[in-house]
Amino acid sequence: PIRFIKYNHNNARTAQGVQLIAFDKNADNGVIHKMYSVMMPPEGDIVTVVSNHNETSTLFKSSARAAFIFKISH
After folding, report:
1. Tell me: the pLDDT tens digits for 61-71?
2. Which DSSP letter does residue 36 get?
3. Per its UniProt entry, which superkingdom is the organism in (predicted)?
4. Which of 1, 4, 61, 63 could be disulfide-bonded to 68 (CB atoms 3.0-4.6 Å)?
């Protein structure tokens, strides 16, 4: 799944962290969203992403203590 976020204070929208510069444009076979840059694939599963970033280190440590990491990675 792709994570879309709408920021109400400035009406900006992102998809996987990439800013959408035009969105919800109807096409014959769906909807088009124009992006500011290329959307990169995920870095791995949630365990890999959380464990590799300093800003989520507390979450990773807490989850590991609760054995949550093991449960969601298997």
Report:
1. 787 777 766 67
2. S
3. Eukaryota
4. 63
Model pLDDT for residues 11-64, shown as the tens digit of each residue: 899 988 899 999 889 999 999 989 999 988 777 787 787 777 777 778 777 877
| C-beta of residue 23 within 8 angstroms of C-beta of residue 35 | no
Are 3 and 15 spatial neighbours (Cβ–Cβ below 8 Å)? yes
**pTM assigned to the model:** 0.51
Whole-number Cα distances in Å, 24 to 1, 6, 18:
18, 13, 15
Cβ atoms within 10 Å of 14's Cβ, excluding its own: 16
